[in-house]
Structure of RASF3 protein:
Amino acid sequence: KDVQKEREPHVYLSKEEVKEKIQSYNSSVTDKLKMTLNANGIYTGFIKVQMELCRPITVQSSQSQGRRAHSNNETAFYLPEGCVNTLHISSTNTVREVIEALLKKFFVADNPAKFALYKRCHKEDQVYTCKLSDREHPLYLRLVAGPRTEMLSFVLREHETGEVMWEAFSIPELQNFLRILDKEENEQLQILKKRYAAYRDKLEEALGGVWKPG
């Protein structure tokens, strides 16, 4: 079970420290996804993001890009569990830009405001997760933690139920949520009715055995 951890303070590195960390990072990389330091001090590299989405996403076909949402070229489906995507980004890219780039790469039509990026750390047999703010820089976090995903990994999730930005959803999406909730409510109601009907039958059978006419 994930354990929420306080956000660690951001530590700024000098250009020389960045250069040394990139050299150390690249020497430890095993998947060839190395970082590159540019002359202007900006560095580029790769991050892997695990998709942990509970709700279906809406995907556009490449031909429908730029058209109005909810066209006939859009399909809603659930992502398979354990889906991981790789992005090439720079040290200047923020969390919000990473989320937008990730959705754009896979033609996801849903509003980026529906999603949040988390960092996940493994320490002392516990899993710590922390929601990243929109202004944080994922590649910097990757550099500081090193290339091992056991030390740090990124996870894309929907916002928690208590903080969902409902205004980011379209009317058809909200209506679909209501239909799903109504269906689930009816299913649970039928289960409860069958359960208590069985209890009633057993009670009536027991009472009939006790109160026999004399």
Q: What stands out?
A: Residues 34 and 166 are 39 Å apart (CA to CA). The chain has four helices and nine strands. The chain has a mean pLDDT of 80.
